[in-house]
Amino acid sequence: MQTEKTVEMKKENMILWVLVLLFAVIMSVPFLVPHTGILALFGLIPLLSMERIATMLEKKRVWIYHYSAFVIWNAITTFWVCNATVGGGLFAIFANSLQMSAVFGLFRWSKRKFKGALPYIFLAVTWIAWERFYFDAEISWPWLVLGNSFARTLWAVQWYEITGALGGSLWVWACNLGIFGLMTSLSDGSWWNFNIKAKAAVVTGCMAILIVPFIVSALIGRKYKDAMAAPESLETLIIQPNIDPYNKFQALTQQQQNAIFLDMAAKELEERRNDTIAAPLLILAPETFTSDIIVGQYDRSLTWRRFTSFLKEYPDVNLLFGASSYDYIQSPLRPSHTARKMGNGLWLESHNSALMTDWSGRTEIFHKSKLVVAVEHTPYPALFCRIDDLLGGVMGRCTGQDEISLLNVKDTEGQNIPIGCAVCYESVYGEYYTDYIRKGARAMTIITNDAWWGDTPGYRQHLSYASLRAIETRRAIARCANTGISAIISPSGEIVSETQWWTPAVLEGRIPLRDDMTFFVVHGDITGRICTFLSILLLLALIVRFRSF
User: Fold this and answer.
1) pTM attached to this predicted model
2) Closest among 450, 459, 496, 462 to 476, alpha carbons compared
């Protein structure tokens, strides 16, 4: 008898683990394979089924199953972080999974007091509230926001211009819960208690949730079919120098790197001059191209002097390049938690910056604000910077700006064309990104260096998220990546042209200049705010019910 019970338990456990793996695989595919975002509309069903079966079987320690599900999903989709830092990659996988599992565990806890569909509504809105919170958290890694599942299925989410990516998260939950609800009612027999009208209403509602967003997307997308053919445009020249960041200064001096970049630019500019075509107004260089910029003292930089000297031959050209930049501060006391002591009352603040310059030496600078935890940013600096000092200063301590600012391209008539420059990781943050447009950016640029991850899905995922930002703001993007993929992206999110990975390349094209603002830009993340409000209300109601009984 004991043997039969043991065999039965093994079968039950096997079913649960199969559902765990099925969830992880289905939800990973949209992040790895183009045009498969629709799978996310069904991908949560195995996880929900696992939880329902485990509850019916009165299984103990169910958290092991759902935490494992999230760990496997995170590992399959973001394993590539370990290529840059094994410790950081493992922390990202396990810590991110822990937060997901905590939300799911809260849902299971709510089932003790909430009945019917209410626990599942609580799960959906709390998950989206967590995603919204994650965008502004001190330790932030919102890579696997559910709405990002459609980053390479753009035809289905042109309505992100209204809701942003969290609208996609809501769609994912609504579809999964709707289908799961139908499956549950069929399995427990309650479906047959409905009358014909009720059945028709339920099926129609589920079909509408699934299909209507596709129709809306198609209708909205038609408006941007020819969005690249705008009355005004900005000519761009994107230089992809393809310098290995791991050997950046060991193999090449900064002078040699400058020479590689300028040789590629000069060759293209001379060809265009010989073809009697006007030179591009904007040349792009990648993130952290140089590390010799002192803020406010640009003429001390060899790279800056070399660039401005080169541009004297091309007075109608602007150059935007990335730099590790520094502020030196003379102070008897530490000016900030992130400042590093240099000696004799001198302190250093570091930044990851984008600079715009031209032949005249005019220079504008923007400091990246959404910084990569540990690599660039020490979280909770009042505490962890002290610990880092004891460890010898092993963590990054870049500081950003309090608010976004724009860079200006001077056109051939001396007029300013305001553009935004999102530096690398900043292109993952949808609502933050809209600030560029609200401040008047007519087009967007992204400068990045994705080579830290090697030839893995990481750099392709990062590129695809830029397409979501284009849809949300309806601004074209000129994207410059050190080793690829550099690209020109249309306001509909379509990649118009792109370079190859790990290849020196020059990409030229025109990006349209626009002044309109989308609903998402004007009103922000309404989906996230509403879900946060509902989540708080339901959580308070849950607490009251537990205290009342």
Assistant:
1) 0.95
2) 496
